[in-house]
Amino acid sequence: MYWVFISIIVFAAQLCNGFYLPGSYMHTYVNGDNIYAKVNSLTSIETELPFSYYSLPYCKPLGGIKKSAENLGELLMGDQIDNSPYRFQMNVNESIYLCTTTPLNEHEVKLLKQRTRDLYQVNMILDNLPVMRFAVQNGVKIQWTGFPVGYTPPGSNDDYIINHLKFTILVHEYEGSNAEIIGTGEEGLGVISESDKSKASGYQIVGFQVSPCSVKYDPEVMTSLHMYDNITSISCPSELDKYQVIKEQERISFTYEVEFVKSDIKWPSRWDAYLKMEGSKVHWFSIMNSLMVIFFLAGIVFVIFLRTVRRDLTRYEELDKEAQAQMNEELSGWKLVVGDVFREPNCSKLLCVMVGDGVQILGMGGVTIVFAALGFMSPASRGMLLTGMILLFLILGIAAGYVSVRLWSTIKGTTEGWRSISWSAACFFPGIAFIILTVLNFILWGSSSTGAIPISLYFELFFLWFCISVPLTMIGGFMGTRAEAIEYPVRTNQIPREIPARKYPSWLLVLGAGTLPFGTLFIELFFILSSIWLGRFYYVFGFLLVVLLLLIIVCAEVSVVLTYMHLCVEDWQWWWKAFFASGSVSLYVFLYSINYLVFDLQSLSGPVSATLYLGYSLLMAVAIMLATGTVGFLTSFYFVHYLFSSVKID
């Protein structure tokens, strides 16, 4: 506590000079400083299977390959960050020779051709900035992160490797200012104090761009050179016969050149080029569309409460007993199910567990999005978003246990069996996730992909779940037994009332209700899927937070309206219908994911890639079902409780 208090005091004292939370600690370099680039896994939007950079015959660093420390999120996303031989000297423009490979064998040629035709990208990092390249398609300038492994001309059987890179590094001259820089990235928390400002003066890297090309060298000439020898500047050829073809017994030479360009971009703004928000009008359209749905549903709820419920309750309460007895023969609708509305639902244990896990998932997603919207989860901190979500899920096990057990004690009228409920809540969603991820992991292992979760990480995740989530869930369940049970406002009859037959199944209405919450979500869902599967940065968490709030409101309103409609036709089995009225949005999310796979991910190739996509989409849909279903159920429960608490029963 002492150190926490001191940290708060120091932090508050620095606020007078301002602070910045970019996601990584600021580095300054002086002229001639050596800067080494790192390489991440090779990725492709065609296969979604990441592979190690050094799985291909690239040049290796002189001191050997060294892996960078990776957090939990990076490991789960398949990132494998290694050092590389690419070395730059601050403000020194030069052309460098790296190495020449041994003659390519059959396996290496097959691998290079396959990675080239699958459109694999090399992902390089300098000072925590991903390399960016620009391309012109149909007259439009498009920016990409990374550069391709190779190039295949249209209609050709030959493939050409990218073996020469022209780097442009944008630098900003920094002389020290009154701004205090606070970092939260891979280097940890750091503050530049007054005494450090003189040391901090120098140059900051604010941009990292590359222009890749293929150049055929004479291997006899190139092998006489040593790594980091200077060579003459090279112009990228335009004729195919001057490209470096990929074929057996070819020796490939790798070279690069670098140019440092002074820039007015300041270090806090260097990520702006990666995070340009495109389609902001579409986001606003999505929000306005959601608001229209909300106002429409709110109008219906308003009518239910003020015109129907209030009027009926007033008439019902003003009648004397004889008049009530006479009126009961004429009554219809929700007032007739007063003795059955709180009857225990089918599979009540499963309902309690799903609602508890839904609260856990909803809390995890809500807190994560709030922190991301406030800027605490910068893309510069790779894997931080996923790591934060996992830690929040583990901690919020206490909420899952509490809600599950309290709902169980409300339905059963006793806390007996709360340990079984708590244990089930701790295992239900993690168990589903474990089964799906294990199946997908075997597929990734079979493909030798870096996206496969190492067996050691499996044990770490199991340890975190068993030693943090399970105990907290049990503690939450124990707290649920100590909480005051929610008392029903009316008594339940011993004999259940017969539900009148209807022309159409009630589940059709429940499934149809999911279209309204989906209408508030699907536009933002498109951007999220593009971020995950097309390698784009998603950083409009402000919009996502607004959409989440609108989604919660729509789910609550839809569920209340549907519950009231079922009660009005004397259907007292509302529990599961209230859950799936809003939870059915997950069905449309999964169907939209399939639609996205067919029409927007047409480049995705092979059954392995499609299986991975559908597996992750199924897991996302289950999480959305639990979260949205919980919102709808809890809202409907309190609505029904309020509705019947105003009815006099003798």
From TrEMBL:
Q: Name one GO biological process term.
A: protein localization to membrane
* Transmembrane residue ranges: 284-306, 350-377, 383-403, 423-445, 457-479, 507-533, 539-562, 574-594, 614-640
Alphabetical GO CC annotations of the entry are: endosome membrane; Golgi membrane
What organism is this sequence from? Arachis hypogaea
Localization, UniProt:
Endosome membrane; Golgi apparatus membrane
- Which Pfam families does the annotation name? EMP70
Q: What family does the entry list?
A: Belongs to the nonaspanin (TM9SF) (TC 9.A.2) family.
- The protein depicted here goes by the name Transmembrane 9 superfamily member
Alphabetical keyword list: Endosome, Golgi apparatus, Membrane, Signal, Transmembrane, Transmembrane helix
Renumbered to this chain, the signal peptide range is 1-18
| Topology in the lipid bilayer | Multi-pass membrane protein
Q: Report the superkingdom from the record.
A: Eukaryota
